[in-house]
Amino acid sequence: MSDRIEWINALSTRPSLEAAVTEVVEKVQDKLVGSADLAIIFISSAYASDYPRLVPLILDKLSVPVLIGCGGAGIVGMDDREKAREIEASPALSLTVAHLPNVEVQPFYIEAAEMPDLDSSPSSWTELLGVEAAKNPQFILLADPFSSRINDLLEGLDFAYPSSAKIGGLVSGGMIERSGGLFYHDQQKPRNTYLYRQGTVGIALSGNIIVETIVAQGCRPIGPIYQVSEGERNIIISMTGKGADGTPQPPLNLLRALIPSLREKDRELAQHSLFIGIARDEFKMQLRAGDFLIRNVLGVDPRQGAIAIGDRVRPGQRVQFHLRDAETSALDLELLLQAFPQEKPASSDILGALIFSCLGRGENLYEKPDFDSGLFQRYFANVPLAGFFGNGEIGPVGGRTFLHGYTSAFALFRQGI
Predict the structure, then answer these.
(1) For residue 96, what are the β-bridge partners?
(2) Is 90 exceeded by the pLDDT of residue 100?
(3) Phi/psi at 368 (nearest 5 deg)?
(4) pTM across the whole model
(5) Backbone conformation region of residue 50, classed left if phi is above 0, alpha if psi is from -120 to 50, else beta
(6) Residue 219: helix, strand or coil by DSSP?
(7) CB burial readout 15-40, b (16+ within 10 A) else e
(8) pLDDT tier, 287 (very low <50, low <70, confident <90, very high otherwise)
């Protein structure tokens, strides 16, 4: 039996679910040397009517103790030429199978009603998941966007497992509540269903495995860094900083003063692709691109000059306006990929990877296929990549875990010792 982690992916675009399942299972079995300890599936919403049949079809052909997965409007997997493909708006099934020697795989399914309140102790969360914090587990999370209370879950997991990576995405493809698909199988604790329409499925990996993360938010800063002087809930009422002469001013006034100083292209982007970044490290003096958590600008009050954003704000936080376009998004991801081998172990040590990308990326953004996955393979040429396009991406920024939008979040797996 092999003592090295194996991470294998196969992709099928056959319109028949039975044919697609047969194809991906045969492909992974041809390559797998050790036992199958974990399966991860991502399936196109084009098969939505067949979701209840998916896991039974796979388990009939593949013996695996733990399986998780979800549906998505776009699916990522490896074709027969070992090239990562992004299949958008067409049938696709991506199956990843891993042999994980000396790795403990703890699956879990969580309904929102089961979650402890945020005043509970860390032990309430470790009991819910059945994983000790001392094992330093690494989490992969797949959640329903309507019913999972995902932000509360991430806050609770950060509280209970502060040193653990948490990464994943929200199901896409279902336009109404409870129409998506979450897939779950635990051989040790069998349930009477493999398909869930709400909640969160996930795995905790501990032992001889390390999970690295890359979170590409796809934005670049414009203008100076400001400090929130007055805020209420998610509304910035006033800020200070360069251009404010030390006097708190409404953020809309500062934005109006900033826009004329931008180049023409950026002035146009500011009309429809403006975001705001919140610095996540209160103590870091020199902030750079990537040090900010990017949030949507939800609206403005032209009378008071206040700006509403997609997160809570408080006085003292440092913020900066950001722009996003295809060129910026590509550059942001490339810089993060370039930096990875310098900051982390050699890229050749990476055995497999998952990508959780936003529906707003892909061909919608780049106007060409396979962009993010192709860029990833430029730096990790022989690493099997799988994933999906979702309604939100989960990943760490500045030591905390957040739900993102317009992001590509990568999980990279390597052997511990």
Answers:
(1) 9, 40
(2) yes
(3) -155, 150
(4) 0.90
(5) alpha
(6) coil
(7) eebeebbbbbbebbeeebeeebbbbb
(8) confident
For residue 347, the model assigns a pLDDT of 56
Any idea which residue has 């209420």 for tokens?
232
Task: Flag whether pLDDT at 346 surpasses 80.
Answer: no
Q: How many residues does the chain have?
A: 417
Q: Which residue has the tokens 């860390």?
A: 122
- Tokens representing 258 are 């900033």
List the one residue out of 220, 113, 119, 110 whose CA is nearest residue 166.
Answer: 110
Q: Check residue 8 and give its pLDDT.
A: 98
- Helices 122-129 and 150-160 pack at an angle, to 10 degrees, of 110
* Dihedral of the alpha carbons of 216, 315, 259, 270, in degrees to the nearest 10: 40
Structure-token pair, residue 132 = 């000790």
Q: What is the 3-state secondary structure (H, E, C) of 227-249?
A: EEEEEECCEEEEEEECCCCCCCE
State the Cα–Cα distance between residues 213 and 206, nearest whole angstrom. Answer: 16
Q: How far is Cα 246 from Cα 243, in angstroms, rounded to an integer?
A: 8
Tokens of 309: 């954003």
CB count, 10 Å around CB of 397? Answer: 22
Question: How much is the pLDDT for 244?
Answer: 57
- Rounded-to-integer distance, Cα 293 and Cα 304, Å: 25
Structure-block tokens of residue 359: 């529906």
Three-state DSSP at 83 gives coil
**Which of the four pLDDT bands, split at 50, 70 and 90, describes residue 180?**
confident
How is residue 77 written in tokens? Answer: 């997997």
**C-alpha dist (Å) from residue 237 to 224, 240, 252, 357, 409:** 18, 11, 9, 32, 32
* Amino acid in the structure at residue 186: D
Q: How distant, in Å, are the alpha carbons of 207, 245, 346, 353 from that of 350?
A: 16, 50, 8, 8
